[in-house]
Amino acid sequence: MAKVGRNEPCPCSSGKKYKHCCEKKVDGSRMSSLMLVAVALAIVAAILASVFSEGDTTAGPGKVWSAEHGHYH
Q1: Backbone angles phi, psi at 39, to 5 degrees
Q2: Any idea what the Cα angle at residue 51 is, between residues 46 and 52, rounded to 5°?
Q3: DSSP string of 27-73?
Q4: Contacts of 18 (CB under 8 A, 6+ apart)
Q5: What is the pLDDT of residues 5-63, one digit of tens each?
């Protein structure tokens, strides 16, 4: 399907120019898709950061939890 020019009649047969009719609907759906992808990537990045964080969360032999510092010594 050929791209519709902004000043051509809208293909939905409304009688309006494309720029005043359906152009906004097409651009809006693309933006929604991009935002969804960006949010999904941010969630994945946060999960990976928490999985691969270098924080010591397990007590080894001779280690004691420090409430002041929030980690084991």
Answers
A1: -65, -40
A2: 100
A3: HHHHHHHHHHHHHHHHHHHHHHHHHS-----S--TT--EETTTTEE-
A4: 4, 5, 6, 7, 8, 9, 10, 11
A5: 888 899 898 899 988 888 877 666 677 788 899 999 999 999 888 777 766 566 677 88
